[in-house]
Design brief:
CATH class of the largest domain: Mainly Alpha
Strand content: under 5%
Helix content: over 70%
CATH architecture of the largest domain: Orthogonal Bundle
CATH topology of the largest domain: Tetracycline Repressor, domain 2
Number of domains: 2
Shape: flat
Largest sheet: none
Oligomer: single chain
Order of helices and strands: HHHHHHHHHH
Structural class: mainly alpha
Length: about 190
């Protein structure tokens, strides 16, 4: 990554963590870098490119032990790591929801999912859709977790918020994530 593009990526991530996706724009990035917005356009043509830079940054951090022989366990560990990286940057799941996986690291991550699904016996004609289902589950799980954590930390009240709070008290997000991921995998893998 070129030094200025790396600075733009880091500034974008700082803004995303601090201000959320609504605060991420060219003007805010320029302000973070102490530049004029017009100077950014030499390196980034549009906001969508920033989304791709952030997705690359996150996908580069996804880890999974390559020595796992069981493709289901590999898929679980891979997507637990994806969740962890998404949770590390507020609103990053929203970034992934706005782009298609066509940057190098994002494609590599998606292809690892495809390969594991294929090794699990999922028909080749269904692997792509199965990988998208898993991807969408992880992202929606992160969206929910961010939302639920905000509700339980907040001082807001009301019927809906109090309802959620009553069900979220003491929730184990890791365990619930795994419960959902196992259910998704059970639903998309061939039954013997």
């Amino acid at each position: 990554m070129k030094p200025m593009v790396e600075k733009i990526t880091n500034a974008s991530i700082a803004i995303l963590k601090r201000d959320g996706i609504d605060g991420l724009n060219m003007r805010a990035i320029a302000g973070e870098l102490k530049l004029r917005a017009s100077a950014l356009y030499k390196h980034i043509r549009e906001k969508r490119e920033i989304y791709y830079l952030i997705s690359e940054y996150i996908c580069e951090k996804i880890t999974c032990p390559e020595n796992l022989k069981d493709p289901r366990n590999y898929l679980i560990e891979l997507n637990k790591s994806f969740r962890k990286e998404l949770l590390g940057i507020k609103h990053s799941a929203s970034i992934f929801g706005r782009i298609i996986p066509n940057s190098p690291k994002h494609m590599e991550f998606f292809n690892k999912n495809l390969a594991a699904l294929s090794a699990m016996g999922v028909e080749s004609t269904r692997c792509f859709f199965a990988a998208k289902i898993i991807n969408n589950y992880v992202m929606s799980s992160v969206w929910d977790e961010e939302f639920f954590r905000a509700i339980t930390r907040g001082n807001s009240s009301g019927t809906g918020i109090n309802y959620y709070r009553s069900h979220l008290n003491g929730i184990n997000y890791d365990r619930n994530f795994m419960y959902g991921l196992e259910a998704v995998l059970d639903g998309i893998t061939p039954q013997t």
